[in-house]
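#struct-queue
[09:14] JT: dropping the first one here, sequence first, then the structure tokens:
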Amino acid sequence: MILSLMLISFYFVYGEELGIGSIYLLILFLFYVFATAISISAVIFVLLSEMYPNQIRGIAMSIAGFSLWVGTYLIGQLTPWLLEILAPAGTFLLFAIMCLPYLYLMWKYIPETAGKSLEEIEAYWLEEPKV
């Protein structure tokens, strides 16, 4: 995702100057959609459903789902404004930079859950933090 967003930003800065056709921009956007689909989009609701204890899972998933939709709405509403203020290159570079904290948090704090029961995953989240 980060690579595709950075390349889209690069395209808007240097694409015309280097004679890069608009078909490459389409390819970069499709690559971004592909990268998103095989990463965050595919696992976010699975991850959210695994990280909450059984007794609060329903309400917690409702709040998390609502938060995701609010975030999606805000991105959709703010993107035209960002395109005006930062220009397309700046907007897509900002989106790439916004992926970095997400990447760090996923790498550092989200455990592998394959092959574990919901009870085992719940026990992991309820453990005291190790300092």
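[09:21] JT: and here's the second one, same format:
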Amino acid sequence: MSLLRVVARMLTGSTYTVLGWEAATEPGARVGAAADTLARIRKVVPLPADDETIVRANGAAQAVGGAFLALGLFPRLSTTVLAASLIPTTLAGHEFWTVEDPDARKQQRVQFQKNAAMLGGLAFAYLDARRPRD
């Protein structure tokens, strides 16, 4: 495997590991930010009633998935878990279309787009894991 692939995988995975660990250990304001989205998801998917538990579990999934990706373990599984976690995280945390203040709206749109780019990076990592090795 090329050095560039190893570095790219480690940089991508480490971001999820660090941010996921923070969410799992100190969910804080993320719980309130996730409440409306979790309520909408509960209409379709049975989830535990405790929003904090879900935020912590989501953070743990990101931390573990990110560590696995960084280490090159189960890359297709880890990228799938991370993508499945990132989509609701992005929708819950960066609903820029609901923000009235122009500056806050712009900030949330930038964060939404950053997460979309991270999702694209996961797609590349998933596809790369299916390639024959160098």
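[09:30] RK: nice, looked through the second one.
[09:31] RK: The chain has one domain: 3-129.
[09:31] JT: good to know. The helical segments are 3-25, 30-42, 51-71, 75-93, 102-129.
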